[in-house]
Design goal:
Layout lengths: L30 E2 L11 E2 L6 H17 L5 H4 L11 E4 L2 E5 L5 E8 L2 E9 L6 E6 L4 E2 H20 L9 H9 L8 E5 L6 E9 L3 E10 L2 E6 L6 H10 L1 E2 L2 E2 L1 E3 L4 E2 L4 E6 L7 E4 L1
Antiparallel strand pairs: 1-2, 3-4, 4-5, 5-6, 6-18, 7-17, 8-16, 9-12, 9-15, 10-11, 11-12, 13-14
Helix pairs in contact: 1-3, 3-4
The chain binds zinc ion.
């Protein structure tokens, strides 16, 4: 795997990868291509590549992605710490799941839609009472996922191939990630996948008659995403890859439009302690 980080710019002058700001006083922060709270330690762009304003803008998008992407429940089971060193938490459709300092996982969820005060709360302990639970997750805004993936894609391109990421061929996606209007949408492909590590790649797909397309590929625990980085208005490549590429035997799903994606609820058999079992609580 290519791990070289390009710290020197061919232009000899800092220029933000997204807004193209060149004021050297505006580049004080490193940029995580995938948020640290998802477990990313290795894919970081040094200060001087993404300006502080863009960095700040993307932190909101990253926060949304962490909690709403299509396999976000995995992070709780992986015991990652947040940036501030706290155990992770994430919203459910009408409640929350979080981990405490001892590693126990707590769930809180409204029993009846619209009646948030009628809550079921469960904590996981080590002693044995088995119970089957099903926890709905909040819906996902596909546009925010797509914008995050294009941001990560352009940054991966820079991480792997340096100044090539500044070429005009990638301007549409660069602007979409940072400023995208409501009318724009960059499609993405995804499927569940057993890999538990984080890996970022640039895929170059050569189609004889139709030429070359670049895709950003993001492996996160439990899922892989692909997003086109150039020629995004041509559906050809997205459809061809969907039809031919598989990950661990799974076919890719295609998200083509801005829409609300319903997520599969988290279903599991929990082992609860006998003395603290499931409790129905009223606030
Ligand atoms: Zn910028």
């Amino acid at each position: 795997m290519e791990m070289e980080v390009f710290t020197e710019r061919v232009t000899g002058m800092p220029k933000c990868l997204f807004c193209q700001d060149t004021d050297q006083t505006h580049f004080s922060k490193v940029e995580h291509i995938v948020p640290e709270s998802l477990g990313n330690r290795q894919y970081v762009l040094p200060a001087g590549i993404v300006c502080d304003k863009c960095n700040g803008f993307f932190s909101k998008l990253e926060n949304y992605f962490c909690h709403h992407h299509l396999a976000s429940g995995h992070k709780l089971l992986k015991k990652y710490r947040t940036k501030k060193g706290k155990p992770p938490s994430m919203p459910l459709q009408a409640g929350e799941m979080r981990q405490d300092e001892t590693g126990r996982v707590h769930f809180r969820q409204a029993l009846i839609e619209g009646k948030e005060r009628e809550q079921l709360a469960i904590s996981f302990f080590e002693r044995d009472v088995a119970i089957r639970v099903c926890w709905p997750l909040p819906d996902t805004d596909s546009r925010k996922i797509s914008r995050f993936l294009t941001k990560a894609g352009i940054e991966t391109l820079y991480f792997k191939l340096g100044a090539m990421a500044l070429e005009p061929a990638f301007d549409f996606v660069r602007k979409y990630a940072r400023f995208g209007s409501k009318l724009d949408f960059v499609p993405f492909l995804w499927c569940y996948h057993p890999q538990q590590s984080i890996d970022l790649f640039i895929g170059t797909f050569d189609f004889k008659k139709n030429g070359r397309f670049h895709f950003g590929t993001v492996f996160l625990p439990g899922i892989v995403y692909l997003v086109p980085l150039d020629r995004v208005e041509e559906e050809f490549a997205v459809e061809a890859i969907r039809g031919s590429l598989k990950f661990a035997g799974n076919s890719l799903n295609l998200c083509k439009h801005a829409c609300t994606i319903k997520r599969e609820p988290i279903e599991l058999v929990a082992h609860l302690s006998a003395d603290s079992g499931p409790q129905k609580t009223r606030k």
